[in-house]
Amino acid sequence: MRNKLFFMLALPLMLMACKKDKKCPYTTSTQVAGATEIANLKAWLDSSSLTYTQHPSGIFYKVITPGSGPTPGVCSEVTVKYKGLLTNGTGFDSSYTRDPDGSVFTLGELIPAWQIGIPLIQKGGSIILYVPPSMGYGSAANGPIPANSNLIFNVELINVK
User: Fold this and answer.
1) Does an H or E element contain 130, and which?
2) pTM reported for the whole predicted model
3) Model pLDDT for residues 5-45, shown as the tens digit of each residue
4) Quick check: 140 and 61 in contact, CB under 8 A?
5) Are 28 and 55 in contact (CB under 8 A)?
6) Which residues of 113-152 are buried (b: 16+ CB within 10 A; e: fewer)?
């Protein structure tokens, strides 16, 4: 009886010890854009008469719809619909044509501007992100995105897991 009781108590503990916790390898970005980048992007926004809010990181944004429900964290899996533009209006990426139901990403794998900007809305929300180069792709060209580009992203947050 004693051995049976020990086994009944020990088995759940052994199973819990064998269960591997999925640790999130990401931390929230603390990156901040340089003063010159911020000033250049702000000058463009002002000359374009756009309404925006400046985040301490140096990104600028406009919440279109705040959404409701969960707010994503850096380890969240997010489903988004988005369009990426250069400041001259040239589109460089769009999930609307490629993934009509939305693209799925882990937030911590994305550019710093998305890691910071997407949690400013909740599921069902939409936001425009105005991104200085170092918060996007920096000094390296990336496909159709020239090096040191200010970027604009229209993002809809479809789901958060």
Assistant:
1) strand 126-131
2) 0.86
3) 333 444 444 444 444 457 999 998 999 999 999 999 999 99
4) no
5) no
6) bbbbbbbbbbbbbbbbbbbbbbbbbbeeeeeebeebbbbb
